[in-house]
């Protein structure tokens, strides 16, 4: 049974995307100076241009009075990158850079200016309107008088938070691989500063905390308000947050309204799976997905729990049943995890629980190690056949090739892994590939804190549903494109083999009726009840393990991980960066070049060098 705790039902009224959060981080600043906004990070130094620093002595830039006063939404861009806003005591690399920033500011805020005074070391800029007080005055800075040997490549100002501000624009995409070594190289290339590995790592973590809506602890405190806005923006969505008596996080269940509405048009086959999270507080992400009319992934529900145990699976499946109901023809496909089997028998006793064909094949490879080739050759054909006569022939061949496998598969149950013995329609879904594919899409997202994780899942589903609804609206036939391609080559024999009746391929209107997922406003626009805004959700009570967190999953039983192939020597077991095999500069026939079509050059005799060709 699910573990005891309090359920916090968030009333219907999601979180902004990371880009939205970054772009609006400076809202509410009275002077319009976004000091903490990623849009105002210092400009990259111009390559091969000696700096001529100029400082803004006076800046009255609160807004021009002669036009529409608008804030800079996208920042001020130039050749070197983002130039930022004009403010007092800001130092520009040159007078040209200052004037570029002033010009772009005038274009953005829709006013005109004139240069009141301009000298090589001094400039004054004013608005052309006589009653407007907008002005900028800047002067050239004096050079440093410190001795040359006092200047260091390592600078004390390059602290971790400064490094984080300089590199956080590169980390907006959660799938971006940006190592501390890359941070060190960028700081050296842009600013000529040498920083240590630890400073680069801490700077990257500061940038992550800024872009991922705060630290992991702050992300848990932000979660109740985010869920409230998610339900308010997407009416009909179901959210259930389970907390302990000490307000510590336990479970979170989310099912979007678009998924709930679209499932009634899909075939009743649900694939369930779980994958481990890689954040500070770990946990497990549970998923329930099915196929849409175009054989694409259709997410149904998501759940975050502590671990993959009986209580977590039972809590998740109870919520799935309460939201999507209990269809008498429901089929659940999963691997052979014991907790899944126990939870399905408890929550869906009338449903037909099937085993993933490939997970069972991996189990067979582990038990019958010496017969791997024979298993792969006969097992898949036996599982996929439609009629019983073909099954008996193929199963006899498999049993003869691999002694002992017949008893093993019969103990598992022929009806759980074969298509021909299924008491209810399994359609054409024989594996949990859709669940594994969804886990692969979320492989980098699973490193995010809890609120950022939920937000990225929402963005992914929002993108998928919008694209598919748009494509389905342009279809002119009842069948989807994937189904039409499959039926072209099997219309003649579909009736004889019974494939069309067993697969029950849906029509394309399933995609057309799918609803969309609405975006969530910026955090500054949230309107949450006082009870939710004052509620401080605490992270789960888990013991964090010292050392670097594992990011690569452990292989399943019988799973064969692909070995890398070197693009230099064409051998497996290593890559090009670690290759130490010698490569011949002039390959000989023994090296495998005897069959090449390259022209061969014969040695020229000295007497033939100056001979005249005969016509």
Walk me through this protein's architecture:
The chain has helices at 18-23, 95-109, 160-167, 180-191, 197-211, 216-233, 257-263, 310-324, 338-347, 357-367, 372-384, 388-401, 405-412, 414-417, 433-441, 450-473, 481-488, 494-497, 499-503, 509-512, 530-533; strands at residues 6-8, 54-60, 77-78, 81-82, 91-92, 113-119, 122-127, 135-140, 238-243, 249-255, 269-276, 284-291, 297-305, 331-334, 352-355. Helix content is 35%, strand content 13%. Helix 3 packs across helix 5 and helix 11 packs antiparallel against helix 12. The strands form three sheets. The chain has an eight-stranded mixed sheet, with helices on both faces. The longest helix has 24 residues, at 450-473. The N and C termini lie far apart (98 Å). It contains 21 helices and 15 strands. With 615 residues, the protein is α+β, with helices and mostly antiparallel strands.
Name the descriptors.
615 residues; alpha+beta; 8-stranded mixed beta sheet; 5-stranded antiparallel beta sheet; 21 helices; 15 strands; 35% helix; globular
Summarize the helices and strands and which ones pair or pack.
Elements: E1 6-8, H1 18-23, E2 54-60, E3 77-78, E4 81-82, E5 91-92, H2 95-109, E6 113-119, E7 122-127, E8 135-140, H3 160-167, H4 180-191, H5 197-211, H6 216-233, E9 238-243, E10 249-255, H7 257-263, E11 269-276, E12 284-291, E13 297-305, H8 310-324, E14 331-334, H9 338-347, E15 352-355, H10 357-367, H11 372-384, H12 388-401, H13 405-412, H14 414-417, H15 433-441, H16 450-473, H17 481-488, H18 494-497, H19 499-503, H20 509-512, H21 530-533
């Amino acid at each position: 049974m699910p573990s005891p705790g309090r359920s916090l039902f968030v009333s219907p009224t999601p979180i902004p995307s990371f880009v939205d959060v970054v772009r609006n981080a400076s809202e509410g600043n009275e002077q319009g100076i976004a000091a903490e906004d990623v849009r105002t990070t210092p400009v990259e130094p111009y390559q091969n241009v000696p700096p001529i620093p100029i400082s803004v002595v006076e800046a009255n830039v609160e807004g021009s009075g002669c036009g529409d006063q608008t804030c800079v939404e996208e920042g001020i861009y130039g050749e070197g990158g983002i130039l930022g806003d004009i403010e007092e005591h800001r130092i520009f690399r040159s007078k040209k850079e200052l004037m570029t920033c002033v010009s772009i500011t005038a274009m953005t805020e829709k006013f005109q200016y004139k240069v009141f005074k301009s000298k090589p070391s001094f400039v004054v800029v004013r608005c052309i309107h006589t009653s407007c007080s907008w002005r900028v005055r800047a002067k050239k800075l004096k050079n440093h008088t410190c001795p040359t040997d006092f200047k260091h490549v390592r600078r004390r100002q390059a602290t971790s938070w400064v490094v984080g501000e300089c590199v956080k624009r590169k980390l907006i995409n959660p799938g971006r691989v940006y190592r501390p070594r890359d941070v060190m190289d960028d700081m050296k290339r842009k600013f000529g500063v040498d920083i240590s590995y630890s400073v680069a790592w801490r700077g990257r973590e500061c940038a992550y905390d800024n872009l991922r809506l705060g630290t992991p602890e702050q992300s848990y405190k932000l979660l109740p308000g985010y869920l409230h806005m998610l339900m308010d923006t997407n009416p009909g969505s179901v959210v259930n947050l389970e907390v302990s008596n000490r307000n510590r996080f336990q479970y979170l269940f989310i099912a979007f309204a678009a998924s709930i509405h679209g499932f009634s048009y899909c075939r009743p086959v649900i694939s369930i799976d779980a994958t481990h999270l890689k954040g500070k507080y770990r946990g497990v992400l549970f998923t329930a997905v099915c196929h849409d009319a175009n054989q694409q992934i259709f997410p149904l529900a998501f759940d975050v729990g502590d671990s993959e145990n009986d209580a977590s699976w039972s809590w998740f499946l109870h919520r799935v049943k309460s939201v999507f109901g209990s269809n008498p023809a429901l089929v659940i496909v999963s691997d052979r995890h014991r907790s899944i089997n126990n939870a399905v028998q408890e929550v869906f006793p009338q449903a037909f629980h099937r085993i993933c064909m490939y997970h069972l094949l991996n189990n067979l490879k582990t038990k019958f190690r010496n017969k791997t080739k024979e298993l792969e050759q006969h097992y898949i054909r036996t599982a996929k056949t439609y009629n019983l006569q073909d099954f008996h022939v193929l199963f006899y061949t498999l049993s003869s090739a691999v002694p002992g496998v017949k008893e093993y598969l019969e103990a598992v149950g022929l009806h759980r892994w074969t298509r021909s013995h299924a008491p209810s329609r399994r359609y054409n879904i024989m594996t949990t590939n859709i669940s594994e594919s969804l886990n692969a899409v979320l492989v980098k997202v699973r490193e995010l804190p809890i609120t950022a994780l939920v937000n990225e899942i929402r963005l992914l589903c929002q993108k998928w549903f919008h694209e598919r609804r748009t494509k389905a609206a342009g279809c002119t036939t009842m069948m989807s494109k994937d189904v039409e391609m499959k039926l072209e080559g099997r219309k003649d024999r579909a009736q004889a083999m019974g494939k069309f009746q067993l697969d029950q391929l849906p029509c394309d209107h399933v995609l057309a009726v799918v609803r969309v997922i609405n975006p969530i406003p910026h955090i500054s626009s949230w309107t949450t009840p006082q009870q939710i805004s004052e509620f401080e959700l605490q992270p789960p009570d888990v013991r964090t393990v010292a050392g670097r967190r594992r990011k690569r999953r452990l292989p399943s039983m019988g799973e064969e991980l692909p070995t890398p192939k070197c693009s230099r020597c064409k051998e497996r077991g290593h890559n090009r960066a670690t290759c130490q095999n010698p490569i011949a500069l002039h390959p000989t026939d023994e090296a495998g070049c005897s069959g090449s079509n390259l022209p061969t050059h014969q040695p020229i005799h000295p007497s033939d060098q100056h001979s005249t060709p005969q016509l």
